[in-house]
Write a structure and sequence with these properties.
The chain has one domain: Metal Binding Protein, Guanine Nucleotide Exchange Factor, Chain A (Beta Complex). The chain is globular and about 40 Å long. The strands form 2 sheets. Strands 3-4-8-7-6-5 form a 6-stranded antiparallel β-sheet. It is of the alpha+beta class. It has 2 helices and 9 strands; from the N terminus they run ααβββββββββ.
């Protein structure tokens, strides 16, 4: 059985936009304040755009002023994976989807209390599953 994380680039190129592919499969970054969800206030669960894995809930979203969607915590720690990222001469912690390995963004320790975490995530790596009202 093939897991989402084992799918080849040609599969992802067929199912993602060029920008989604660049960000999620090549560890790119969308420009600040350009993403669909950076200022979104709609309630719901943010899913991985590649595989649909539930990642973040809108109740944990906050305006960090950075231009990217920011969250205090994931839906479940088991749904994400973090690893050291020393690209571009910086020391950061990369956030990936545990199911498919998609690059989502980074987590920083400058978020609001009580946890102090800021999951800074690219909009193109997410798909909002809106809550029904």
């Amino acid at each position: 059985m093939t897991h989402d994380r084992d799918k080849a680039d040609d599969h992802w190129r067929r199912h993602l936009t060029a920008e989604q592919f660049e960000v999620t499969r090549r560890k790119g970054t969308e420009r600040a304040f350009t993403g669909e969800y950076h200022d979104c206030k709609r309630p719901g669960t943010y899913l991985c755009t590649c595989c649909g894995n539930p990642l973040f809930h809108s109740v944990n979203k906050f305006d960090s002023g950075t231009g990217w969607p920011s969250f205090t915590s994931p839906v479940s720690p088991e749904n994400i994976h973090t690893e050291a990222d020393q690209s571009y001469g910086m020391r950061r912690v990369e956030v990936c989807c545990r199911n498919c390995g998609a690059h989502l963004g980074h987590v920083f320790e400058d978020g609001p209390a009580p946890g102090g975490q800021r999951y800074c995530i690219n909009s193109v790596a997410l798909q909002l599953d809106e809550d029904e009202t």
